[in-house]
Amino acid sequence: MSLLVVGSLALDTIETPFGKAERTLGGSATFISVSASYFTKPVRLVGVVGGDFPPEEIEFLESREIDLEGLQVKKEGKTFHWHGRYHYDLNTRDSIVTELNVFAEFDPIVPENFAKSRYLCLGNINPELQKKVYLQMKGPDLVVADTMNFWIEGKYDALMDVLQYINVLIINDSEARELSKEYNLLKAARKIQSFGPQVVVIKKGEHGALLFYESEIFFAPAYPLETIYDPTGAGDSFAGGFIGYISKTDDTSYENMKRAVIYGSTIASFCVEKFSIDGIRELTHLEIQDRFNEFKKFSDFQAIELET
Amino acid sequence: MSLLVVGSLALDTIETPFGKAERTLGGSATFISVSASYFTKPVRLVGVVGGDFPPEEIEFLESREIDLEGLQVKKEGKTFHWHGRYHYDLNTRDSIVTELNVFAEFDPIVPENFAKSRYLCLGNINPELQKKVYLQMKGPDLVVADTMNFWIEGKYDALMDVLQYINVLIINDSEARELSKEYNLLKAARKIQSFGPQVVVIKKGEHGALLFYESEIFFAPAYPLETIYDPTGAGDSFAGGFIGYISKTDDTSYENMKRAVIYGSTIASFCVEKFSIDGIRELTHLEIQDRFNEFKKFSDFQAIELET
Asked: What is the ipTM of this complex?
């Protein structure tokens, strides 16, 4: 089924204890659309880049069959640039440089061809723009969105407003706590559901993810990695794998969303194994399926009734 | 099958944001043996208390059919007393008072009747005493042990020594990191396995538990609780449920140890729902089985091959 992705495209400079990558391909829309492209077609992208955006990265996105009709290229401007440095535990990072550049004036326009996309994934951007995109759509079946502390703190009312239109909110544990003002994640999820989304996915990094689907709860394991090279894009890869799988199967049932969470976790686990987007540039269906099956193995056990 | 438990018996004063309990029943051997008693008989206890240990708590332990032949009662002394205060997030706590009392001179003697117990659970005590208990046994089939940062820091060599005799080490994530000097829990577990134990269980509180069984890894969910009243004894209840189930089934295979981890998590989840040991004083087999089945539900999903 058709999927529309909106978000940022960036050139990131990333430092981790394991190395440094300069001006590599980044941005939420990039990670989401590349991840989703392993599952579903067409993936349609709405975003903005500057004249410095490398032509070979345009070619790469096209090679993933991502439809770039909605990509605005501002030749006179520069692409959004973020420079981050991760600490030793890779859970905390400092933003050294954040240059919004052409992203500061981003006015997302959904091409006529894209407006009937059945699935919509709103990457982590200003909630006012998320709503603007939604209102240009002709009634998508499912709207998935991400947000972050920056918008919870700076655009709370706009975020609460756009949450009305969102079916699945995917956020991390600290964001869930901040948005709900509840420490306990169960209470946090229930409160966020009361804001609009019927489904809340809380990502907990190395501790896996929780899927709250109406009154149900599913506990997804994390893939046990000995070394994480670069966490950049892990959350967006998760969202892309999640919505890509749902779009492919065209099934929003609880049972299928559980699998979507595992596919999201699968793509995210590939993402963090290499720098920047390199971990998900070239995956095979076999690699994805094998790792999905490992997730099953890690969490599977057979219940036997206790004899008394 | 027969199970021997050694560890502390205490009178705890506990403060949490939800209330306070004064001089209530505590101690690692208490939580372990009571938890195990829901699965297996006989549970045999080796420990020490003072003349102030309430007779009604002796009766309670006897009502759980725990064999107290190895319980030393030092009438002239006082029972180990700990006074702790939990912070709002319940993950951190301050020790206000720690009075070892009769526990300071604890010299564990395994009665002749107990020496042939098939299963041995060494609660969190001085590793020199853990070894002393082990050496009094006549070749138990499986030795499970717990330890803590206090012994890792203060008795490292003795701990490394006793690890040779231990088949299953159950510790929490921060202890695993400290013992192995590895941040990554996968690397930490592998290193701890190289110290002796073939099996390492890492407890991660609200994030569940990891079972490392030889080269296998199992990811157990946590029970999603809206309110945790008192985390005291959760780790010991986990260990008691774990070894109690293994002792009952007399099966140390990987498949069965996965179930043991879930039963451990089950008993721990009951433990934290009330103050002190009250959450596990009176459980029914039906309650235990129902909650075990909920764990299954929380982590179960059906894998479907990805069509390409």
From this structure: 0.89
Measure in Å the smallest separation between the Cα of A219 and chain B Cα atoms.
5
A150 sits in which H/E element: helix A149-154
- Which of B258, B298, B301 faces A217 most closely, judged by CB atoms? B298
CB contact under 8 A, B288 and A305: no
CA distance A65 to A59: 10
Q: Which residues of B touch A39 (CB under 8 A)?
A: 306
Contact status of B93 with chain A (Cβ, < 8 Å): no
User: Domain residue spans in chain A?
Assistant: 3-299
Tens digit of pLDDT for each residue in A194-226?
999 999 999 999 899 999 999 999 999 999 998
User: Taking CB atoms and an 8 Å cutoff, what residues of chain B touch A219?
Assistant: 208, 221-222, 224, 298-299
Q: How far apart are CA B44 and CA B36, in angstroms?
A: 10
Percent of chain A at pLDDT exceeding 90: 89
Q: In what order do the strands lie in the sheet with B209-213?
A: B66-74, B43-50, B3-6, B119-122, B142-146, B168-172, B199-203, B209-213, B216-220
The answer to whether the beta carbons of residues A84 and A232 sit under 8 Å apart is: yes
Q: How far apart are CA A13 and CA B147, in angstroms?
A: 43
User: Please, which residues have CB within 8 angstroms of residue A294's CB and are 6 or more apart in sequence?
Assistant: A223
CATH level 3 topology of A3-299: UDP-N-acetylmuramoyl-L-alanine:D-glutamate ligase (3.40.1190)
Instruction: Categorize the per-residue pLDDT at B303 as very low, low, confident or very high, splitting at 50, 70 and 90.
Output: confident
pTM: predicted TM-score of the whole model, two decimal places: 0.93
Q: Do B306 and A296 touch (CB under 8 A)?
A: no
